[in-house]
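TASK: fixed-backbone design
INPUT:
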């Protein structure tokens, strides 16, 4: 990977919701991090679209990181069937 392409990326950290604890390497858009991202993930075998909003931005070890919070109102519903566990 070229040095200039490394600087054109950031790490998205998902702090809650269905993707809590996950990380995703993403490209800067127009030289900036995204304020809102949609992620598709399988929950109990069904693909769902989850929206996340940026909370804050920082640099860790020379790498740009952005924390994202789950937007449940705009996302597909997550229905866990705890009765059958």
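OUTPUT:
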């Amino acid at each position: 990977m070229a040095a200039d392409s490394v600087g054109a990326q950031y790490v998205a950290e998902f702090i809650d919701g269905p993707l809590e604890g996950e990380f995703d390497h993403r490209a800067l858009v127009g030289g900036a991090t995204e304020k809102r991202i949609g992620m598709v993930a399988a929950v109990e075998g069904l693909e769902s679209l989850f929206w996340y909003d940026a909370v804050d931005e920082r640099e860790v070890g020379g790498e740009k990181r952005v924390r994202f919070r789950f937007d449940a109102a705009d996302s597909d519903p997550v229905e866990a069937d705890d009765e059958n566990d």
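COMMENT: Confidence is low (pLDDT under 50) at residues 1-5.
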